[in-house]
Design brief:
Blueprint (H helix, E strand, L loop, with lengths): L3 H31 L3 H27 L10 H16 L4 H31 L3 H28 L5
The structure holds fe (ii) ion.
Fe (ii) ion (FE2) binds next to helix 2.
Length: about 160
């Protein structure tokens, strides 16, 4: 089984991102609660719903592999969310905090984009076409979220402090 090790890596990374998405749900609640801009608050709330969908999609990926969906604690997400928490504690609700929240959220998005990007490649290499399509769908959503956050940063930066 030449792809044996790649399969293990694939499953391990799937568990990592499943754990990460679940951890992020809590984080997104906090980000939304602390956003001053209504646009930003809504973007975080929308991404919360989207993240729930991404968790379901990951469960479908496990199912397509004939496996039960099991996540593991993602230390990277834990660290990213800890930093977001520190930011929330050090600033008052303000456009500056909003900018910091966007920065924290974009770091999360970039982690997820890297993870899903690798997972799509692994799925392609092992010809798991159903998993590949599902993962690619989420990868696109993460990229769109990242772009949307940049747009908000640019438009809200023009608001008076
Ligand atoms: Fe996600």
């Amino acid at each position: 089984m030449p792809n044996g090790h790649l399969h293990e890596l694939f499953v391990d990374e799937l568990r990592d991102i499943l754990g990460a998405e679940k951890q992020l749900l809590k984080g997104l609640k906090k980000l939304a609660d602390n956003a001053q801009s209504e646009t930003l608050k809504m973007a975080f709330q929308e991404h919360y719903t989207q993240t729930e969908g991404q968790i379901d999609r990951l469960k479908q990926v496990f199912q397509s592999l004939g496996m039960s969906a099991r996540g593991k604690k993602c230390k990277a997400m834990e660290g990213l969310l800890e930093e977001a928490e520190e930011i929330i504690e050090s600033f008052e609700k303000s456009p500056v905090l909003d900018a910091a929240l966007i920065s924290a959220a974009q770091k999360v998005e970039h982690y997820e984009i890297a993870s899903y990007g690798c997972l799509v490649t692994f799925a392609k290499l092992m010809e798991h076409s159903e998993a590949e399509a599902l993962l690619a769908e989420t990868l696109n959503e993460e990229k769109e979220t990242d772009l949307k956050l940049t747009d908000i940063a640019l438009s809200e930066a023009n608001q008076p402090a």
